[in-house]
Amino acid sequence: MPESSGESQVSGGNKGCSFSVLVSEPPTAEPIARESRSAERGACLKEKDTNMNGPARTSALAIALAGMVLSISGCNQLEARNELNHGVEAYKSQRYEEAIGHFQKATQLDPNLPMAKTYLATALAVNVVPGLDTPENIKAANQAIAIFEEVLAKDPNDVNSLKQIGGIYYSIASPTNPDQQRKNLENAKAWQKKVLAVDPKDPEAAYWIGMIDFTEAHQNILKVLGPAGITDDGAGNAKAPKKVMDPIKAENGPLVAEGLQYLNQAVANRSNYDDAMAYLNLLYRRKADVDYGDETARKEDVAMADEWRTKAMGTRKANEAKKNAEPGGITMDSNGNMK
Fold first, then answer.
1. Which parts of the chain are beta strand (E)?
2. Cα angle vertex 72, ends 61, 114, to 5°?
3. pLDDT band for position 44 (50/70/90)?
4. CA-CA distance, 125 to 92, in Å (whole number)?
5. pLDDT, tens only, 99-122
């Protein structure tokens, strides 16, 4: 009978990654025809050899299997990064469904890959249609929010995820369902306030809170003026009946106060924030509603609104001029020819 080498090879791999381990096999049986005395002399030696080599073979096999696991893990990590790169390329080309598929594979292959879940949630959020409250749209929104929350579970101070969740809640605040809209707007504000808890000087989060406050206050005034057949004049609606305007003072007062606070904070932390200035103009006009009955205060509110409108227009013009002065997609060589 031919003698065995005592070893066999077990191989495996994962898409281009391969590995092999050598595993000891039991030796083949010796021919039975042996002298009895030789067998007796060898018995003790064989027993000693077995007792010594058994633990050694077990240890070697455990090490080999550990190496196999590490090899598979390394392959998965490489594949995950490859999927992540393909996903980024697809996302940049606006092939969002393709990007989602790549990002999902990346997270499955390596759940600890940095940014993979963030990219996946961002791509899913692109599918959320603003102002649409269909079951499909709400499902897409909730799916994106859930993955951002997974990111936050590991890093509660991830500002991007906090902002993204706030933005998604704002997107699904549909006016066709006023109660749900109010709830989503309040959720959006709550998440932006979480951003400010991490970074108190973030101007965008402060802007979003002020903008949402204006949105709610504006809807409130239209809700009472419409049935009364009155058109909003944007200057405090001084000619509207008292019974129409009195409820607005209580309902919009807190919204206006909060909104002004955060919009001023946004401008304080970004001096050329023209969007925040534009909403300060609008919110002071809602403050004029709150000051109904106090003609001096109403006129001051309108004057402040006009002042912020002028600042917003001037700042926006300056921002656009600065942007146009920066190098763009078309550049010229030293001879004045387009590159």
1. 7-14, 17-24
2. 135
3. very low
4. 15
5. 999 999 998 899 888 789 999 999
